[in-house]
Structures are given as C-alpha cells and as structure tokens.
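ARCHIVE CARD
CATEGORY: sequence design from structure
SOURCE FIELD: tokenized fold
FIELD CONTENT:
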C-alpha cells in the first residue's frame, strides 16, 4: 500500500495540524473481507442498522418557500447537552439520501462521543421532507446550506462560519435521482415544473438524467455548461477558512 498523497501550502497552520494527524500519513490497510471501494460502499449500507440513537427534526423554510430539515442527534439541540462553546458539526448527505443513512448516523455517533453537537441537513424533498418549492434538491446549489448554517447560528452562536464544497457523482447515482423525481412527480406537476417523465425513467446514467431533467430544472443550455459551473475547482480556491479535504483514491464515484 502506498501512503496518502498530501497537498498543502507548507508552513503555518497546515504544519501544526498535520503534526497531530499521524493517521492520514499512514497507508490504509482495508479489512480482508472488504478489500476494495465497491465492497466498502456496499457494506456501508448495513451500518444503518448498527448505529443507536435518534434525531429531533427542526424544519427550516427558505426564501423561495423550500423546506429543509435539520436533524439534531441525541438531544444536541438542547442547551444542556454540552458546554456553550462545544463545536457544532453539520453533516450533509449524498444524492437523495438523508440522516437515516448509516454513514451519516455513524458520523453523528463519532461526533457525539467527543462531546460535540451533531446535526444533519436534509435537503429539499429528501428523507420524508415535502417538496414545497419548484426547485428541488440539487447538488450544485449551496444556498440552502447557508440558510441551514444561519439557522444553526441562531441556536448556537459558537459555530464557525459556513464553508461548502460542490461534488458530482454515475450509474447507481442515476437510480437515486430517478427515485427522487418519481417520489415528487405530483409535486413537480402541481408546481408547474416541466419534466419529461418518459425520458427521466429511461435515464440510466447521470448524464442522461441531466439531459432529461436537470438542465430543464436549472435552465442550463447544455450539459458542459452545467458541469463547468458545478466543478469544485471553481470554489475550492475561494475557501477562506482552513479546510481539510479527504478523498479515497479508490472511491467508486470520486476517486
């Protein structure tokens, strides 16, 4: 196994942080029964059953009448849960996911074990939320993240300033996208959103789904325009708060 590849500006806070993060300098040795990223991703789904705890949902309304859901883990929304200056950790799920996902629950468990407040942002129409606006969940729109962060600030003023990353993911993801649109088809119709249902149901890749649905919803003239706008390289250089980004080289989607 080769050691991780680290990219950072030498000196300053990066050197100080890395001095205390010895684990990210060591090669990753997966367990023998889950040797690759595909198996590890599949096994992650089973973790939903093993994380013990519950959420309390806080609904957040956006300026265009969208509905977001902040799910606070294990009573983390209560002032008595932790010290006033305890960190608040905001987790954001993947395509058409939610706080019910195993990897999200275990992230909350890990945060809670350190005395931190854990909260999960459920996007529009995801994890039981009603779709109350013409614009549904979209991975490149981070305005909703900022709305959620401001709502958290009103509850706990100690949380740091918001930072957001934009990611794009194929194939299995297309299935999740189709499920999302099918679940809210009636809402899209009542809100006057033009969706080609037949084309959507025949979409088996993210690209074909974007042609049939995403470009229509967001008003992009062509896929390459949408992808260029969504690319993370447009946003990473502008993050002002020190940020650690970790990515597995064998990740099926992003590696």
């Amino acid at each position: 196994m080769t050691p991780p590849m680290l990219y950072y500006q030498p000196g300053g806070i990066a050197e100080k942080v890395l001095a205390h993060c010895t684990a990210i300098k060591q090669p990753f040795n997966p367990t023998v029964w889950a040797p690759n990223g595909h198996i590890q991703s599949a096994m992650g789904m089973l973790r939903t059953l093993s994380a013990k705890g519950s959420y309390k949902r806080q609904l957040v309304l956006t300026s265009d009448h969208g509905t977001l859901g902040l799910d606070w883990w294990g009573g983390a929304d209560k002032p008595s849960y932790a010290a006033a200056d305890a960190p608040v950790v905001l987790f954001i799920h993947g395509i058409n996911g939610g706080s019910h996902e195993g990897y999200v629950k275990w992230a909350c468990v890990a945060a809670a074990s350190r005395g931190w407040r854990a909260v999960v942002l459920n996007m529009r129409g995801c994890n039981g939320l009603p779709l109350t606006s013409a614009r549904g969940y979209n991975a490149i729109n981070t305005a909703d993240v900022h709305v959620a962060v401001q709502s958290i600030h009103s509850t706990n003023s100690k949380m740091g300033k918001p930072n957001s990353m934009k990611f794009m993911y194929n194939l299995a993801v297309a299935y999740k996208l189709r499920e999302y649109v099918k679940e809210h088809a009636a809402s899209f119709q009542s809100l006057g959103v033009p969706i080609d249902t037949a084309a959507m149901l025949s979409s088996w890749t993210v690209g074909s789904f974007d042609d049939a649905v995403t470009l229509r919803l967001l008003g992009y003239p062509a896929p390459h325009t949408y992808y260029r706008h969504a690319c993370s390289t447009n946003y990473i250089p502008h993050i002002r708060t020190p940020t650690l980004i970790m990515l597995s080289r064998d990740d099926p989607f992003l590696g």
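CARD ANNOTATION: Strands lie at 55-61, 67-73, 88-92, 117-122. Residues 143-155 form the longest helix (13 residues).
SHELF: design records, drawer C
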